[in-house]
Predict the 3D structure of the following.
Amino acid sequence: MFYSTDENRHGLSHDPFKAIVAPRPIGWIGTKGRDGSFNLSPYSFFNIVSDRPKIVMFSSSGRKHSARNAEETGVFTASLVSRFIVEPMNASSAPVPYGVDEFKLSGLTPKMGDLVEAPFVAEAHAALECRVTQVIQPIGLDGATGESVMVFGQVVGIHISEAIIRDGRIDMGLARPIARMGYMDYADGGTDVFQIERPKS
């Protein structure tokens, strides 16, 4: 099968693009609005993009609540989604009006960052505190911007639960991070953890 994306005639019942770019880590983005309201929402368009400086990015289809709050306040958090809290993660993705607290909606505990004025999931095994560095809209080949908004943030603080640390490193088998696989499919990243040594020059 081959198809050009300008016509997108793949003939399948669902667009396969996001299933091909998988697994995708989930950034569980926590923000606080200017009105003081808490917001929590999962984004599978999320990843680390730089180590020095430590930069992460999440992308929103339109200026949804997380992107709006992060842009207005200059801060956000990203909590790790593990298998044991995947149901609350899903509950926090409900399309609710601005100002509705998804922490309460999903039965989770908000904890304010040590360095940023934004909440993260207290139950999560790990969380990143971030300060916004850029907000951009990607440009297509035609030079036009789409509806997506990309929020980049430098990680200024990291929380890690001692429960997942073994031998001086995070044990991913214990952390059991959840990844988006496309469609409504998810994967438990802790069920088949293996190591491969890189080739040496």
